[in-house]
Amino acid sequence: MIDSDVCAGDWFLREKETIRHILEVAGRKGLSAVFDDGSLSDPHVSSEDTTQLRLQLASDCHSQVVYGVLPVIGNNSRLSDMVFQYSPGNTMFRNARVVGFKLEDRFSTRSSKERVDFFRRLTDLDYKGALVINCEEEKTENPFSTYVYNAFANGFQGRLHFSPLTSGRSVKIIQGLKKKFSRVSCGTTFPYLLLDSHRSDDRLNPRLRSSINRSQLMDCFLSGEIDVLASGHNPVNGISGIASWQDVIGILYERGADMGVVKLATHDNVNRVFGLNINGIYRQQSLTPDCNDKDFYGKDPYAELLRR
Questions:
Q1: What gap in Å lies between CA 101 and CA 52, rounded to an integer?
Q2: Are strands 184-189 and 159-162 parallel, antiparallel or unpaired?
């Protein structure tokens, strides 16, 4: 399994999480890779220097779990330096690499010309990797189509991956776009499939939705319409997930998930979306008697579901 959406903390967030710790937990849970969202770190991973520092931190852990980072892009002035960091064959750091990019949240506020120039620049730089976009709460009727047409009308050769989605309506829009554009995909995370919108500690972006939305999203997952499922692990915002992988997969099976759908969403499709070939088999390490990963993160957000 590959967890393609985590906040690995460190730097100013190291009291909540560190790269070393998240790799250790991932190893104990049998994960073969984790992808660190650069927009959730403090400071953001948005320059050549911060990207290199992040990769060095992960490489120094000497973990068998692959560490991937998704630096933030959206500023044309630094684009060439950032794209240079991405290379499918990059072996500069042991088991650590740039796996794609995250589009900056404020990108939608840029002018139409700036957005077009951005995608033309990516095309000129021959970037063919994944661009992860979190745009569901943008104040337009259909932000997904705007991004898709801005990108592919200007020659973009990479993939647009919309994640996390929180509603069945959004998934259906993406399904329609996928019929026209083969390099469009979508994902969601554990909280949006399983957690209640009335949580007092919900500081997620997007926010947790209603039970109706959650039910529709689950139907989309069970039918295989959602390409990628990740934990959305973010202890900084009050939602841990990396330590709950086996529990959540068990809950999904109880709710009717097919083993093949789960494997696609947690491994095969992750490799396809990000253009990787990460082995899905990793030998799970046993927990030492004094090591309980859920206790480290405090409240287990999925504990109540396990008791039902």
A1: 14
A2: parallel
Sign of CA dihedral 284, 257, 260, 171: negative
Name the residue with tokens 């770190």: 41
Calculate the alpha carbon distances from 118 to 151, 275, 302 in Å. Answer: 9, 22, 40
Point out the residues of the chain with pLDDT beneath 70: 88-91, 198-202, 281-291, 307-308
φ and ψ at residue 43, rounded to 5 degrees: -75, 165
**Which pairing describes strands 101-103 and 159-162: parallel, antiparallel, or unpaired?**
unpaired
The CATH code of the domain that includes 57 is 3.20.20.140
Q: What is the chain's mean pLDDT, rounded?
A: 90
Q: What is the largest CA-CA distance in the chain?
A: 58
The structure tokens listed for 224 are 């295989």
Q: What is the pLDDT of residue 283?
A: 52
Which structural domain, as residue segments, surrounds residue 173?
A: 2-307
Q: For residue 206, say if its preceding peptide bond is cis, omega within 30 degrees of 0.
A: yes
Strand partners, 131: 101, 160
- Residue 1 CA to its chain's centroid (Å): 13
Number of domains in the chain: 1
**CB–CB of 301/240 below 8 Å?**
yes
Distance CA 147, CA 159 (A): 11
Residue count of the chain, please give it: 308
